[in-house]
Amino acid sequence: MATSESTPTPAPKNQRREIVAWCMYDWANSAYSTIYITVLVGYLQRAVLEGDAGLTVWGWGIGVTTLCCAILSPILGAIADVHANKRTWLAVTTMLGAGASALMFFGTPDRPWWFVAMFLIANLNYELVQSFYNAFLPEISDDERMSQVSGWGFGTGYVGGGLMLVVAIVVLQFGERLGLPTENGFLPRLCLLVMGLWWAVFSLPMLLIVRDRAQPRDSSKSLLRTAAAGLQDVKRTLLDIGRYRMLAVFLVGFLIYNDGVMTVISQASVYAQTKFDMDEAQLVPLFLMIQFVALPGAVFLGWAATKIGQKNALHICLGVWVLVLLSGFVIETVNQFWAMAAVTALVMGGTQSISRTIMGLMTPEAKTGEFFGFFNLSGKAFSMLGPIMFTEILKRTESAQWAILSLLVFFAVGWAIIAPLNIAKGQQQAGKAGRSG
């Protein structure tokens, strides 16, 4: 990967074909994010590893791969900046993740080791692609349109993930009538195969159209030497973080509240199975509803953030998350759970979209790969704590309510940290004109 793939003259921003291709990548990898919290977790815990074994592999598997991603993301991001080849790294991690997802098809109940190995590889690469994908946002859109483009990306992802769930519904509920075999978990394994192919195929527009705009700093270095230099860049950025004080404040707050967001998303199906004994056939329609409610939520909040300011919009999102967790402690019926899930959907994509926009606004243009690597680090470094804490509290108390309520601490602490954030000042510290609030 020592070759550069930069273009001699940077193309203008806000090109429709690039924005559409970038949004289509969210369509592609959202297939994984929806299927793994419905079909994958259900198949793992009901067929591959039953009881506490499946619960432990799920919670700790997400935690460990997330921690590995936190360590690798800033290093790979720095390497990508040196060679201006974020697109190459995006292609490699995409194909590894999509390939492992498809290969889970061969993880039959009598071969749990294969299934678990492919799950870990797929989840690690799903986490890694986010930093390279997100790093293109400030390259393809200017500050004025960044909130809207970010919202469109999440909105497109919800449609793609939703359609993948429709495919899963057809396979799971009508597969036997269509003449498909059902032994050895064939139907859920088929869903995983389709999900991997979906991710790979719909990634192609992004991989073929969008290119790095930055010029390589030194394309002659080998990958090993670049990795060593990347480590030095990471160290230098950490030591020099005082120059970007507002960005540092945001990253610490994001690190904490995002752990709560990602844990709620990844453990929602575990909560539903434990509290209401819902199986895959019941979970898939629920998450289909979430996808299509989240679409207008993400687009609306992206638009609202341009009107009331990104920080104010983020405050609203975090307030709704707190109410969701409190309701999760007291609800008693499946209908109430559906209502809670619908409210969650309204802010789910908006929270991440607005956070990504704030990061883009305060990122120096010459360091998008490196800084979005740190954004991924900030999003993942503590993100192993939420799933593990949720899993261990659930195992010890046998109460999904206490497990979900415990996540309040992440939102409360993260929200308090970002309270003094000044985005305009952060833009000035990054060498930009402070225009957004």
Tag the structure with descriptive keywords.
437 residues; mainly alpha; Growth Hormone, Chain: A; 18 helices; 78% helix; globular; disordered N terminus
Rg: 21 Å
- Helix residue percentage: over 70%
Q: Looking at this structure, what is the CATH superfamily?
A: MFS general substrate transporter like domains
Please give the count of helices.
18
Q: Class, according to the CATH hierarchy?
A: Mainly Alpha
What is the terminal-to-terminal distance?
39 Å
In terms of DSSP E residues, the strand content is under 5%
Number of distinct beta strands: 0
User: What do we call the CATH topology?
Assistant: Growth Hormone, Chain: A
Q: What string gives the helices and strands in order?
A: HHHHHHHHHHHHHHHHHH
* Low-confidence blocks of residues: 1-8
Reported for the largest beta sheet, the result is: none
Q: Structural class per helix/strand content?
A: mainly alpha
Shape: globular
CATH architecture descriptor: Up-down Bundle
**Total individual domains:** 1
Mean pLDDT: 84
Task: Please give a quick description of this structure.
By secondary structure, the protein is mainly alpha-helical.
Model description:
It is built from 18 helices and no strands. The chain has helices spanning 16-48, 52-83, 86-103, 112-135, 137-140, 146-174, 186-202, 204-209, 223-239, 245-276, 280-308, 310-330, 334-361, 368-380, 385-397, 400-405, 408-418, 423-429. It is globular. The longest helix is centred in the first third of the chain and has 33 residues, at 16-48. It has one domain: Growth Hormone, Chain: A (Up-down Bundle). The two termini are 39 Å apart. It is mostly helical and 437 residues long. Helix content is 78%, strand content 0%. α3 (86-103) runs antiparallel to α7.
